[in-house]
Amino acid sequence: MESAFFRSFYVLFFIEPSSRRVHVTTSTRHPDSTWVTQQARNLAMTFHDEGIQMRFLIRDRDSKFSASFDEVIETEGIRIIRTPIRAPNSNAYAERWVKTLRAECLDFSLIVSEAHLDRVLRTYVRHYNRARPHRGLGLLSPESTGPATPVKNVPEIRRRDMLGELIHEYSRAA
Question: Is residue 5 in a domain?
Answer without folding.
Answer: no
